[in-house]
Design brief:
By secondary structure, the chain is mostly helical. The protein contains three helices and no strands. The longest helix has 15 residues.
């Protein structure tokens, strides 16, 4: 036997424990949405809202 025959077979890629790619991508998108802080309001939009007349 040669030295290469004694080595265990290596998998060409890692197995993710039965998780589908769709579920993996969805979990990454959810984590990004939860961990991203909300955007600041646009100054032009906030100013326009302040100039509107108030309802009677």
């Amino acid at each position: 036997m040669s030295a290469t025959e004694n080595r265990p077979q290596q998998q060409p890629y890692a197995i993710a424990g039965g998780v589908s790619m769709r579920d993996l991508l969805a979990s990454c998108a959810a984590a990004a949405a939860v961990s991203t802080p909300p955007r600041l309001p646009d100054p032009g939009t906030a100013r326009a809202a302040a100039e509107r007349p108030k309802a009677a």
